[in-house]
Design brief:
Length: 251
């Protein structure tokens, strides 16, 4: 079980007399169970990426905490980190190296044995349909191939929790389907999967539950049925836009 409890993150804004704070995430709470895909939805600037970076130990929350079973992000950072695979659009791969080499390198960073790395590589290369390009330099790969490589690298250590920030952003329809099918298979194998997205079609297809985040606050949370039945709308997209468009009706 992953539990987010009253997660709050403030950033300093400016210096000197004009200095202030920006509240990026405000008392956010939700949980996600093994086998579940949770979708964190919201417009740009809603606090989705900040939330995922707190969950992934990249930044510390100002207050609140995140738990995976009995370990929390503030007190057990190293253990917590070992249980998570995080993919963000900020991840840059060195174009000189190949996917195969990068997988070996990240496996060693995760203190994996050579035989374990090889086994994980073969499974991920097969599951993500990468075998045709694993020995090509990353600079020679298409956008979709690079994204598959980034997915494989983030999961080399077989983490219990998979956290992906906009996993299909900028991908063609074929690669997008390959990535989403892979995430479904990971959840079906008992992993916890959390994604952020503003693509309602992908969200409805993938996610078991959703949280709609606006201005750092959780406005709606639950299954698709829960969210729609609690509103005057008949689909997730309309509920989403009712919160972010002027004059939106949340009833």
């Amino acid at each position: 079980m992953l539990r987010v409890e009253n997660l709050t993150k403030e950033f300093q804004n400016g210096r000197g007399k004009s200095a202030g704070t920006v509240l990026a995430v405000n008392k956010l709470s939700f949980q996600c169970s093994p086998g579940e895909i949770y979708g964190l939805l919201g417009p740009n600037g809603a606090g989705k990426t900040t939330t995922l970076r707190c969950l992934s130990t990249l930044i510390k929350p100002t207050s609140g905490n995140v738990w995976i079973d009995d370990h929390n992000v503030l007190e057990h950072g190293q253990i917590f980190r070992s249980k998570i695979g995080f993919l963000t659009s900020d991840m840059k791969l060195d174009g000189y190296f190949t996917p195969d080499y990068m997988m070996n390198w990240f496996g060693q960073l995760n203190k994996m044995q050579e035989t374990e790395i090889e086994s994980r590589k073969q499974k991920l290369f097969t599951d993500l349909q990468m075998t045709d390009f694993i020995h090509k330099k990353i600079d020679q790969l298409s956008t979709g191939m690079k994204q598959k490589t980034a997915v494989a690298i983030s999961l080399i250590h077989d983490p219990d929790v998979i956290i992906f920030d906009e996993p299909t952003n900028g991908l063609d329809i074929v690669t997008s389907k390959a990535v989403t099918d892979f995430l479904v298979s990971r959840a079906e194998s008992g992993k916890i999967v959390i994604i952020s997205t503003h693509n309602m079609t992908i969200a409805e297809k993938l996610c078991h539950r959703f949280g709609i985040l606006v201005d750092g606050e959780l406005k709606e949370e639950g299954t698709l049925k829960d969210i729609i039945e609690g509103s005057s709308w008949d689909n997730l997209e309309d509920v989403f836009f009712s919160y972010i468009l002027p004059g939106g009706n949340h009833a």
